[in-house]
Amino acid sequence: MTLAVETTPAPPEPAAAPQAARDGLCTARVEIRLDGGWHPVCDVAQLTPGRGVAVLLPDGRQAAVFLDRTGGVYAIGNQDPFTGAWVLSRGLLGRVGAAGRPFVASPLLKQRFDLTTGSCLDDDTVSVPAYSVRTR
């Protein structure tokens, strides 16, 4: 699924999806911070826990937006740097280490990318863009 982005800046808030939005009681928007401010990309209701969606950013880039099973919302670049394919939004979510760092595993070659930093957990020399995310 690829969604278009509106470009209305808004003030900052936390990245966790509000419980009421996760329960379907209201519509909360996911926003990504870009150079020009905060940009709405989709409704929290459009996200499935444990899965991702691809969104089109105003400058033509793609981001992969994820809702993990604890309600955390994350966004990273959607392009797999190992293959060049725009597929990270279709990857599998997981957690690694004692701290439970969230990651997505590419659906193609299975490299894991940290959802908070964009760093590849399997190759320290590779990363994807990581975006600040909030819900409102």
What is the domain tally?
A: 1
Form type: globular
Overall radius of gyration: 14 Å
Q: List the helices and strands in order.
A: EHEEEEEEEEEE
Question: Helix amount, in percent?
Answer: under 10%
Low-confidence region ranges: 5-14
Major pleated sheet? 5 strands, mixed
CATH class: Mainly Beta
The tally of helices reads: 1
Strand content bin: 35-45%
Average pLDDT across residues? Answer: 87
CATH superfamily: Rieske [2Fe-2S] iron-sulphur domain
Strand order of the largest sheet: 1-4-5-6-10
Label the CATH architecture.
3-layer Sandwich
Determine the CATH topology: Rieske Iron-sulfur Protein
Terminal Cα span: 22 Å
Can you describe this structure?
This is Nitrite reductase small subunit NirD. It comes from Streptomyces lycii. The protein is an all-beta fold. The protein has one domain (2-135): 3-layer Sandwich (Rieske Iron-sulfur Protein), CATH 2.102.10.10. 3% of the residues lie in helices and 37% in strands. It contains 1 helix and 11 strands. The strands form 3 sheets. The protein has a 5-stranded mixed sheet with strand order 1-4-5-6-10, with no helix packed on it. The chain has a 3-stranded antiparallel sheet with strand order 3-2-11, with no helix packed on it. The protein has a 3-stranded antiparallel sheet with strand order 7-8-9, with no helix packed on it. Strand 7 (92-96) and strand 8 (101-105) form a beta hairpin.
